[in-house]
Design a protein that fits this description.
Layout lengths: L3 E7 L9 E6 L12 E6 L4 E11 L10 E2 L2 E2 L8 H14 L3 H8 L10 E7 L3 H14 L2 H12 L2 E3 H8 L3 H9 L3 E7 L19 H15 L5 E6 L5 H14 L3 E5 L6 H12 L3 E3 L6 H12 L5 E4 L11 E7 L16 H12 L2 E6 L4 H8 L4 E5 L11 E6 H6 L8 H13 L2 E5 L8 E4 L16 E2 L4 E3 L6 E3 L12 E4 L3 H11 L5 E4 L9 H10 L5 E4 L12 E6 L13 H13 L10 E6 L5 H7 L3 H15 L6 E9 L2 H18 L6 E13 L2 E10 L2 H17 L7 E7 L1
Parallel strand pairs: 2-5, 10-15, 10-16, 11-13, 11-14, 12-13, 14-15, 17-27, 18-25, 18-26, 24-25, 26-27
Antiparallel strand pairs: 1-2, 1-4, 3-4, 3-6, 7-8, 7-9, 19-23, 20-21, 21-22, 28-30, 28-31, 29-30
Length: 742
């Protein structure tokens, strides 16, 4: 029998072992080991038992046969990835500068099997007459436990196992002799851990307007002709993008294909799933971080077995093991949540296009405020542009937007968090029985705590940020989780004049309750949605009309559709505008436009109040006019002048380590490496500069930026730095992250 060998990636995310190791496959495992199999192998000089992933199987030894070790065993219950996922992991390793092990862990949402959830029942195997005789016998012999059991079985032939033991005071040991005598049988039934509620189905055909029909027709015409490409569905808020998605999915499913729908926020799952379930029933499922390990495992196994056709979830849903993938939809494609903040720092949009190419699938990107990069590519013909310029409902129209200059409010003596216009409109909605959303993109009670004597703000001892004050009297770091009580005296000067400053969602809730004492309030932020199911509960309460005013962070202004919401108040439009990021104007425009789109969606006139200190900024004026193209042209001009994406590519290299002096030396060496090796390519090098924040959880961070018009050059720079970091002792403990923006 011909010997077989396995190429194995060891489950260690260390640079010097980020390569394939070959192992001999023992004959008894020939038929069981393939690409994706998770195995135990001896590793290193001491033959330490390690876990690894098989990425390829061959019949040729690449090394000295005498030095190749045997695979010890296959890890029982492991979930093997599809070969396509391994190819995708190789691509991610190369594209994002991570180790293969890190890439594999990303594309494997569930690595190991989870024990099935079962339901046990106690079933009588004898007749009622025989049970009655046993009952009499047990009463005579004073077998109290058996008496209770036989009486229960005479009332019901099937008893729930766990509940019966608890209620009747029985043990498993007490039941064993009865099962051995054939009196009872313990039966087990597998229960599917399904996180999707039954919302009922509605198979009625969707009524699309002319624009929606045109978008659907264009996609279907291409799809049926075998053309697979990326589409950008640009539609104003309320234009019916979801209805278009469902028609595209319906066509794809009729051809025997499967679909993935990405959404940026867990909070969007509730409404999205409800609408999709009514159309497709139990052919859909969801996956997100709030599911238990068992729920996640069950959904992925259903996908692999082909028992579902549609998976909905955030970016991790992209790695659903569908074998007949035909369509990937990315809703609200502009959202920053699609960019991973951990290694590998991938963007779902890029990975989706790569997986689609591997699967022969199409990609649809949808947004009312497309990212600069996506619209730029659509203009250049890389994406096919589909547009929806009017709201889907004929009786629905865009809200009237009021921009309030907070400087004028202060000059008129108004020191309230509510401008006069916003206060007036909230009163009006309360009188009419209509609903209001108040958007404040900062959670907690106050932004920071400061001393009025010395001016010092209380900072996190582990991060270079101020602590946020919460209503329970605690100070929290929103970066590392550090928490302490509010001190009575200033830690710097001992002054008693220490107090919270600024406003977060907690304080806004308190101020709203004072200003409108009769109003029913709900708050939705990271603090109120920490528990599983909290998103759905809050949104359902608001949808049912049991709340007048919903206060929250950005999770309330994305993708939700509440017909009776006719007023949106944006409390501090400038919070994101002045962030140290070249995308700050874009993100502000997107947030304001998305928030404005929540008002007036069901025949009722809507109002939006934008409160700002910079009413003339083009991001705010464009959002007020709901004019994406106006914003895009002006922002593109700025990007062109400054040399930022999408006009030029930007490679950010982040170095981090707890020893600041070593970090500075490593960053200096890195910059010299780039200057020396790429001096003829003429890259624009910026920095190094301190990251924002500079210190997180006692780790210092510095960034070097490299700009260039050629993506291939940036990729060469990245690989050169990777090689330098892997071969120099200076970088031994320094973490290196790469992020390319195009």
């Amino acid at each position: 029998m011909e010997q077989k060998y396995a190429d194995v990636i060891i489950d260690i995310s260390v640079k010097n072992v980020d390569r394939v190791f070959q192992y001999r496959i023992p004959p008894h495992l020939f038929s069981k080991v393939g690409a994706g199999t998770r195995v135990s192998v001896p590793f290193g000089r001491g033959d330490t038992k390690r876990t690894g992933y098989v990425v390829a199987v061959s019949s040729r030894a690449e090394f000295d046969e005498s030095k190749i070790k045997d695979i010890i065993e296959i890890i029982p219950g492991a979930v093997p990835p599809q070969e396509q996922m391994i190819c995708l992991a190789w691509w991610m390793k190369d594209r994002y500068g991570c180790t293969m092990n890190q890439a594999l862990k990303t594309v494997l949402p569930v690595k190991a099997a989870v024990t099935d959830k079962t339901e046990k029942t106690i079933v009588s195997k004898i007749s009622r007459e025989e049970l009655a005789e046993l009952l009499k016998e047990s009463e005579r012999k004073h077998y109290k436990a058996r008496v209770r059991l036989y009486k229960a079985l005479l009332e019901n032939e099937r008893l729930p196992y766990r509940l019966t033991l608890e209620k009747l005071g029985l043990t498993a040991a007490a039941l064993k002799p009865l099962t051995e005598r054939g009196i009872l049988e313990i039966r087990s039934r597998k229960i599917d851990r399904d996180p999707v509620k039954d919302y009922g189905t509605d198979t009625a055909a969707l009524h699309l307007n002319d624009e929606q029909q045109s978008a659907v027709h264009t996609f279907i015409r291409d799809y049926d002709a075998g053309i697979r490409k990326t589409y950008l569905l640009y539609g104003i808020t309320g234009s019916g993008k979801t209805e278009v998605y469902m028609e595209l999915i319906d066509h794809t499913l009729k051809l025997g294909k499967q679909a993935i729908v990405l959404i940026p926020e867990i909070s969007l799952t509730y409404q999205t799933v409800m609408r999709f379930y009514r159309k497709f029933g139990d052919r859909i499922s969801i996956i997100n971080s709030r599911l238990s390990a068992g729920e996640r495992y069950d959904q992925l196994m259903k996908a692999e077995r082909g028992e579902i056709d549609i998976m909905i979830g955030p970016r991790s849903a992209l790695f659903t093991p569908f074998s007949r993938l035909g369509l990937i939809i990315i809703d609200e494609e502009h959202e920053g949540a699609y960019k991973s903040e951990t290694v590998p720092r991938y963007h779902a949009r890029e990975v989706a296009r790569t997986r689609a190419a591997m699967s022969g699938a199409s990609v649809v990107l949808g947004s009312a405020t497309p990212s600069m990069e996506s619209f730029f590519r659509a203009e250049r013909g890389e994406y096919s542009l589909l547009t929806l310029t009017k709201r889907a409902r004929g009786d629905s129209r865009l809200a009237k937007v009021h921009v309030v200059d907070l400087r004028e409010e202060l000059a008129c003596g108004n020191r309230s968090v509510f401008s006069r216009k916003l206060h007036e409109l909230i009163e009006d909605r309360l009188n009419k029985g209509e609903q209001t959303m108040l958007f404040m993109n900062r959670r907690g009670y106050a932004n920071f705590v400061s001393c009025r004597s010395c001016g010092e703000a209380i900072k996190c001892p582990h991060c270079d940020v101020s602590l946020t004050y919460h209503r329970n009297g605690s100070l929290k770091c929103h970066y590392c989780g550090y928490e302490q009580k509010l001190p009575g005296l200033c830690p710097s000067c001992g002054s008693p004049y220490i107090a919270p400053f600024g406003t977060g969602t907690q304080k806004l809730e308190e101020l709203t309750a004072r200003a409108f004492p009769g109003a029913r309030l709900l708050r939705m932020d990271a603090d109120t949605t920490a528990k599983k199911g909290a998103h759905e509960e809050i949104l359902q309460t608001f949808a049912d009309g049991a709340c007048d005013i919903l206060i929250g962070t950005q999770m309330i202004v994305k993708g939700h559709d509440f017909p009776r919401t006719t007023l949106v108040g944006i409390m501090a439009a400038d919070l994101s505008l002045h962030a140290p990021d070249f995308r700050s104007s874009e993100r502000t425009f997107q947030l304001l436009t998305q928030a404005s789109g929540r008002a007036g969606r069901a025949g009722l006139s809507g109002d939006v109040v934008i409160q700002t200190y910079t009413p003339d900024h083009f991001a705010i004026t464009s959002a007020a006019e709901q004019d994406y193209l106006q914003f895009y042209r002006q922002e593109l001009l700025y990007r062109r002048v400054m040399g930022y994406p999408p006009e030029r590519g930007l490679l950010a290299i982040l170095l981090s380590w707890r020893e600041e002096d070593i970090l500075i030396k490593a960053m200096s060496d890195l910059k010299k490496t780039v200057e020396r090796e790429f001096c003829f390519e003429d890259p624009v090098i910026i920095g190094p500069v301190d990251a924002s924040p500079y210190k997180v959880n006692d780790i210092y961070r510095k960034i070097l930026y490299i700009k260039h018009g050629n993506y291939d050059i940036l990729l060469k720079v990245q690989k050169s730095v990777q090689k330098r970091a892997a071969g120099s002792e200076l970088y031994k403990n320094v973490n290196v992250l790469y992020d390319i923006s195009l």
